[in-house]
Amino acid sequence: MNTVAPAATVAAAADRLRITEIFLSLQGEARDAGWPSVFVRLTGCPLRCRYCDTTYAFHGGQWLGIDAILAEVARHGVRHVCVTGGEPLAQKRCIGLLQRLCDAEYAVSLETSGAMDISAVDPRVSRVLDIKTPGSGEVARNLWSNLPLLTAHDQVKFVICDRADFDWACTVVAERKLHERCDVLFSPSAAQLPARELADWIVADRPPVRFQLQLHKVLWGAEPGR
Q: In which pathway does it act (predicted)?
C-alpha cells in the first residue's frame, strides 16, 4: 500500500490550524475596545492560569486551512480582527495566519501570554501581551526577553487578583519602564477582585497605567462566542 500522502494533502495539512471558534462581537479590551471585531480563537494553551475564562479552548476544535479562515473572517465584513486563544502562538502556523490577515489589510491584534516568544510576529500586528502575575499561578512562565521587543504599536496587560498582584505589577512597570514602550493596562480578575477596588488603588497610587474592564463580560456575561 502506498503510504505517501498526495502532495495536495500534504500542502493542505501544512496550512492548517486548530480553531475553537470564529465569531463577530465587540472588542472588549485594550486599545480597540468597542470596535466590531472578528475573533479567531485558536485551540490549545500550555498555561493553566487560575482565573482562565476560556478553558473550553484547551481541547477540541477543528482543523481549518488559512484560506478557509480568511474566508470566514471576510464573511463578517468588519475591519478589526483579533487572534486569540487559548494561546494562539502555541500553534506555529499562527505566524503565517497573522501575516495573511495583515496582507488582507485588516487591523490585526494578537492576544498572547507573556510566556511565548513574540519575535516572529508580523510588526503590523498589535501584540497584546498578558504578563502573568503571581496570583495567576503562572508567573514563572513569563518570558522577559519579550519586553525589549515591544513598541508603541503594542500593549501590555496585567490581570490583577489582589493587592499583592497590584504592587508586583506596579514594580514591574516602573523597573522595566513599560509605560515608555507602550500602553499598559490593568484589569481586575473578575472572580477574585472587585473592579472598584482596583480602580481605587490606581487613583490613589497613580501608576502610569490604564484601568480596563472586559466590556463583553459587562454586556453578555461569560457566554462563549460573545
A: Purine metabolism; 7-cyano-7-deazaguanine biosynthesis
Instruction: Please indicate if the annotation marks 52 as binding a ligand.
Output: yes
Domain assignment present for residue 201? The answer is yes
Model confidence, pTM: 0.90
Q: Provide the residue range defining the domain that includes 67.
A: 7-220
Q: Closest Cα partner for 43 from 78, 80, 90, 8? A: 90
Q: Give the angle 214-131-223 at the CA atoms, nearest 5°.
A: 30
Structural domains in the chain (count): 1
What CATH number corresponds to the domain at position 149?
Answer: 3.20.20.70
Residue 54 counted as an annotated binding residue: yes
Handedness of CA 184, 189, 192, 195 (dihedral sign): positive
Q: Is 28 annotated as a binding residue?
A: yes
Inside any domain, residue 1: no
Q: Does 45 show up as a binding residue in the annotation?
A: yes
Task: Establish whether 170 is an annotated binding residue.
Answer: no
Q: Is 27 annotated as belonging to a binding site?
A: yes
| 89 marked as part of a ligand binding site | no
